[in-house]
Amino acid sequence: MDINYELYKVFYYVAVSLSFSEASKKLYISQSAVSQSIKVLEKKLNQTLFIRSTKKVQLTPEGEILLRHVEPAVNLLRRGETQILESNTLRGGQLRIGASDTICRYFLVPYLNRFHKQYPGIHIKVTNQTSIKCVDLLESDTVDLIFTNYPNSRLGHGFHIQPIKDFYDCFIANRNYYQELEHRSLSFKDLLEYPILMLDRNSTTSEFVHALFQQHQLELVPEIELSSNDLLLDLANIGLGIAFVPDFCMSQSCKDLFRIQLKTELPARQLAIAYKEHIPVSNAAKQFIGYF
To answer: What SS3 class is residue 188?
Structure first.
């Protein structure tokens, strides 16, 4: 089907902003031109792509399907343009990274600082998502590379995975509330007698710890599930339960928190860099990957 790319470009801007006026501003064309382009595209595809009302614009199911295909294509074209314009220089361009807030805060900041000082002309964009959702960013070409906990069930074929650091998870509690546990060794079954605080199901950490308990024929039912390791540390610190967190996010400020000794040693996990195998990474991304 012969459809002008510009029509898809207009569709993309309307779809991500859900506003004809916002799309017209970003495309530097009139709102009527945006509306006309959408009408032409809908006629060519014989589908209604947007539900229009006086208050808001919504994607139809067909529009949502089209966006899932158009968004990666637009991002891929942008990426190609950027790499060609950058050529072999590192005086400009963009470095786009996806990572969880925990990985950003407790691991990436020194490397981002180093890169920014070395290449001040390169714009650094960091998008925070869970390690699992970061794969979506990579698949849609919203980012050049991601930093993820590994194993990650979403990373399959088509991705280059480079492990960069081993780490261990730990169960932690506040000695002021769980003093009797500080010098005991607990089994996984023993842990179920206490309130467990952990990351929510949409995380590699949750996948990992649930699998550990299932290997021992035990069902883990957390007392609290959150999206932030920092919040887990805060809640453990006030005695709400035993938190499950990566060891690298423990800090000196956690002086009242102690690690629960386990009868079964937890296996190591890894921090890893992942990027698409068959798409060349930008020069900026290559330099950043080189730090590791």
So the answer is: helix
